[in-house]
């Protein structure tokens, strides 16, 4: 169950981390230090990752819930 949570959160987190790293490099190169500038690219990168990996994420979550509900009678006993 925890592995499913990791799989579902990994694409947006990695995309946001990479975008934050790239923006941090750009900010350090230009000397600009504004937190608001780094927030928008991270949110856009996370949204883009959800859009790209969305069908895989939905199928993974749907398969998990299907297996959970079908095995629920065995878990209740």
Structure description:
This protein has 77 residues and is an all-alpha fold. The protein has one domain. It is 91% helix and 0% strand. Helix 1 packs antiparallel against helix 2. 5% of the residues are buried. The model has no long low-confidence stretch (mean pLDDT 92).
Set down the secondary structure blueprint.
Elements: H1 2-30, H2 35-70, H3 72-76
Structure summary:
With 77 residues, this protein is an all-alpha fold. It has helices at 2-30, 35-70, 72-76.
Our estimate of the beta-strand percent is: under 5%
Helix content range: over 70%
Main pleated sheet: none
As for the number of domains, it is 1
Mean pLDDT reading? 92
What general outline do the C-alpha atoms trace?
Answer: elongated
Alpha-beta classification? mainly alpha
Spatial gap, N to C terminus: 20 Å
Number of helices: 3
Please mark out the parts with pLDDT under 50 across 5 or more consecutive residues, or reply none: none
Instruction: Give the C-alpha Rg.
Output: 18 Å
List keywords for this structure.
mainly alpha, elongated, 3 helices, single chain, 91% helix
